[in-house]
């Protein structure tokens, strides 16, 4: 006997489906177009509204929440709200973070007035369906709901696409529909996964196994898609079955605990440590699993194109052969099953082969530096969640040992500066791990008001602002010689005015500490450790010419500007669903 649907509203239907996905927090900036949804959330819903200071903060928060909990959601108002959030949603699209974007739209009457009489509705651009047109480029599915009876089917269709492709989706609902009658959901949603082509899978595995059998120095290169499709356990089984060591991308860092046997470090091209670079680039077979290829690592792909295995959810490439109907999960599980009947071959690869630079001994009154700071943070970040912003700190943080699975977050593919503080809001809501943020002073200025949200909801994030008065990563990318000679002056457009971070923290109601020396930084960490219901901003005062050693070693080396022509060929390009 079929279950009879109960009566509800359009708003309650959407809330029920979000709760079904495990979403307990909706990040938003309140607006009249979404007031009906917010009123529904206030009615004993498990879903809580978290009010951020601006829409891009809400998008960043939902992105980080999705990385930890599986799905995230944000809500905004038409035009000014949705378009303000756009950069954050694009980052989620590029990095495969399934965020549900809910946009309150104009009513039917408002639309009719604009069409018939030219009376623009609130936040209209003068062109109809502007938000839909823009979001259709950066989401995997969209829906505009203008009648209550179409809400269930359209909402379900879009959410199934989100579950299937692990990318953002867009739902626009007219503001006069939130309270209109609508049956509550019946049954559970599920991803619409394509059937496995057994013959193609067998041929693909034969090809991969033959290459692995003949390889003397294979390496597994783990990327972010292993995390997005929740393949942590499957990847761990593959490691045990194969005995092959592995590295990760920055986006895939901590896909497993970095105490896992066989882990060598983070390989991100020219910014990897020199010994790890040599180690990976001497491999005769690189098996990239769920790895997004960017220009940071394009040179190794070009060099090893014919001997690399690149496996993603959009297909498997083995050398110049492509298997478009074999998915990442099927490939990883299939390889493990093939290897299960073979004892892992002892390989001349071990952790000792890669030496990580130490910070050396330093006295307490030593000026704080990037290297000293990250060496000091190794113990502090244990059992916490590291969030690294784009900049010098991103690459310096690659060497931080992360002892837990999913203990590190960065937007290291899209690389929008200013992501981290907003992301800490979502991360703090999503889990039990305390966020520890590393952000440059330039990146922090992109959204310092997110500190106010942390204070409002008593989220005890630790925000380490690298205060060196310069856009360091921009200076390095443009004229790295500045960091190699005392006489070279910085480019004027990279210099920053000095902010009073203590006054700023106090204005938002946050705690504050300042550190110029190692002993002062230790004291700041002690203060941070004692806080349980308040964020703390640590003003880390660095010399403007200080730079992490992992970046300094690249000065004088040039990365290839052009890679092989087939780097841009359809064989290599990601298949975007």
Automatic annotation (TrEMBL):
This is Indolepyruvate decarboxylase. GO terms for biological process: aromatic amino acid family catabolic process to alcohol via Ehrlich pathway. Mg(2+) binds at residues 441, 468. Residues 206-297 form the Thiamine pyrophosphate enzyme central domain. The keyword Acetylation does not apply. Residues 9-112 form the Thiamine pyrophosphate enzyme N-terminal TPP-binding domain. Residues 396-540 form the Thiamine pyrophosphate enzyme TPP-binding domain. Binds 1 Mg(2+) per subunit. The keyword Lyase applies. Belongs to the TPP enzyme family. Coiled coil: none annotated. Keywords: Decarboxylase, Lyase, Magnesium, Metal-binding, Pyruvate, Thiamine pyrophosphate. GO terms for cellular component: cytosol. SUPFAM superfamilies: DHS-like NAD/FAD-binding domain, Thiamin diphosphate-binding fold (THDP-binding). It comes from Bradyrhizobium canariense.
């Amino acid at each position: 006997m079929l279950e009879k649907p109960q009566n509800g509203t359009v708003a309650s239907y959407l809330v029920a489906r979000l709760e079904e996905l495990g979403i307990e927090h909706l990040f938003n900036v309140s607006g009249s177009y979404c007031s009906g949804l917010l009123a529904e959330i206030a009615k004993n819903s498990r879903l809580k509204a978290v009010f951020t200071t601006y829409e891009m903060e809400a998008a960043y928060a939902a992105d980080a929440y999705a990385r930890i909990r599986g799905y995230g959601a944000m809500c905004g108002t038409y035009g000014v709200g949705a378009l303000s959030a756009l950069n954050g949603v694009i980052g989620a699209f590029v990095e495969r973070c399934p965020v549900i974007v809910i946009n309150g739209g104009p009513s039917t009457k408002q639309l009719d007035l604009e069409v018939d009489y030219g009376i623009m509705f609130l936040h209209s651009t003068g062109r109809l369906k502007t938000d839909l047109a823009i979001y259709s480029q950066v989401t995997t599915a969209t829906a505009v709901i203008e009648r209550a009876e179409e809400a269930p089917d359209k909402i379900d269709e879009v959410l199934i696409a989100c579950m299937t492709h692990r990318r953002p989706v867009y739902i626009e609902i007219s503001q006069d529909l939130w309270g209109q009658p609508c049956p509550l959901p019946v049954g559970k949603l599920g991803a619409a996964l394509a059937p496995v082509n057994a013959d193609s899978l067998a041929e693909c595995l034969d090809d991969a196994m033959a290459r692995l059998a003949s390889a003397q120095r294979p390496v597994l290169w783990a990327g972010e898609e292993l995390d997005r499709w929740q393949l942590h356990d499957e990847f761990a089984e593959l490691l045990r079955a194969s005995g092959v060591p592995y590295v990760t991308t920055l986006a895939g860092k901590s896909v497993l605990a970095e105490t896992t046997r066989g882990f060598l470090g983070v390989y991100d091209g020219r910014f990897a440590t020199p010994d790890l670079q040599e180690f990976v680039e001497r491999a005769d077979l690189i098996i990239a699993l769920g790895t997004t290829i960017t220009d940071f690592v394009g040179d190794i792909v070009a060099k090893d194109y014919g001997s690399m295995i690149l496996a993603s959810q959009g297909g498997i490439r083995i050398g110049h052969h492509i298997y478009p109907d074999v998915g990442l999960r099927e490939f990883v599980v299939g390889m493990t099953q093939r290897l299960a009947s073979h004892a892992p071959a002892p390989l001349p690869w071990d952790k000792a082969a890669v030496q990580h630079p130490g910070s050396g001994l330093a006295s307490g009154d030593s000026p704080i530096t990037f290297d000293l700071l990250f060496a000091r943070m190794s113990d502090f970040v244990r059992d916490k969640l590291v969030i690294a912003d784009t900049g010098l700190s991103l690459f310096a943080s690659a060497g931080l040992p992360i002892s837990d699975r999913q203990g590190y977050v960065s937007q290291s593919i899209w690389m929008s500066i200013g992501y981290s503080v907003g992301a800490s809001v979502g991360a703090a809501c999503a889990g039990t791990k305390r966020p520890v943020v590393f952000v440059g002073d330039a990146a922090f200025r992109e959204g310092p008001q997110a500190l106010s949200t942390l204070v409002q909801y008593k989220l005890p994030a630790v925000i380490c602002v690298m205060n060196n008065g310069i856009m360091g990563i921009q200076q390095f990318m443009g004229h790295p010689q500045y960091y190699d000679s005392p006489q070279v002056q910085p480019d004027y457009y990279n210099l920053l005015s000095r902010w009073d971070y203590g006054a700023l923290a106090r204005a938002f109601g946050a705690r504050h500490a300042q550190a110029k020396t190692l002993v002062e930084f230790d004291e700041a960490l002690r203060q941070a450790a004692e806080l349980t219901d308040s964020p703390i901003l640590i003003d880390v005062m660095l010399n403007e010419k200080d730079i992490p050693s992992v970046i300094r070693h690249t000065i004088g080396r040039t990365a290839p500007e052009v890679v092989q022509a087939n780097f841009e060929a359809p064989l290599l390009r990601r298949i975007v669903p």
